[in-house]
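Q: My hope is that you can spare some time for a protein that puzzles me. Underneath my words sits a plain record pairing an amino acid chain with its backbone structure tokens. Those tokens are not coordinates but codes from a learned vocabulary of shapes. Thank you; the sequence and its tokens follow:
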Amino acid sequence: MTLSAAEVVALQSRLLRIAGPLDWPAIQDRTINQDLLEILDWLPASFVDLLFLDPPYNLTKSFGSVNFRQLSIEEYVQWMGGWFGRLLRTLKPTASVYICGDWRSSPAIYQVASRHLHVRNRITWEREKGRGAAANWKNCSEDIWFCTVSDSYTFNLDAVKLKRKVLAPYRDGDGNPKDWENTEEGAHRLTHPSNLWTDLTVPFWSMPENTDHPTQKPEKLLARIILASSNEGDLVFDPFLGSGTASVVARKLNRHYVGVERDLTYACLAEKRLASAESDKSIQGYSEGVFWERNARQRVNAPRNVGDKGPMPLFSAGGDTETR
């Protein structure tokens, strides 16, 4: 998905800019086009059910008009600490928090998160591809830290099961399938999700969700997090929105959203994707209420999402782009 100059002008009118404290209805289902630190203390208290954090990793990288310079671990901890604690007042007591990072930034993320939250797990997901290195292991994984505000939180296990092909289809004494079923696609079983995610494909050029954002997360990844840790009607907040994936998937899954993005072009891309999500609620790799293995061919006639009508487009996952 790309933007023309005319679209930027048109979509800019949909963006929100705030100049003082606001109640949560004023920002619900909106994209705020400002620096997070500029508006942080104006955000309402206790309005967020699920906080998704994808801050700049500890790398020197450009994000449109915004640049980030690599820091020492101590400096990165200090940088995160400057906004992390202030952000947490926006959370409900039952809220969950997911924080993205890589091997460089993960130690700092754990230091900061563990001071304020219950750290429940560290998810590692495979990006499928990465740039090779002549004197090091190719970097093709990232981390997501799963945290909660308290011991009372949402986790919808049945909503995030993975549909896997059965390689050894055992049967019981009566010849019936044991823990698997025959389907039109072959022998499959539903498995419980683990903290190792190897079924994702980073958005590549031919996928409708692809943009030119350098670190765009897959919609399938956000769908898993949102389905697991929120309910329909809950509010998902992404303070580093980028091209809008968290807000887009929240809308597709009947959640409310708030996103903050500093770069005008990326904020407009988010709005264009949100408009598209009104009519197309498909999420590649997720259909019939389950997540499919990477490169699995989804059924043409599968519903777009639970409760939706209409056919699911047939996608076959392919290559990806380097992210971080």
The first strand starts at residue 30 and ends at 32. The chain has eight helices and 15 strands. Helices lie at 5-12, 36-39, 73-81, 84-87, 106-116, 219-229, 245-252, 264-277.
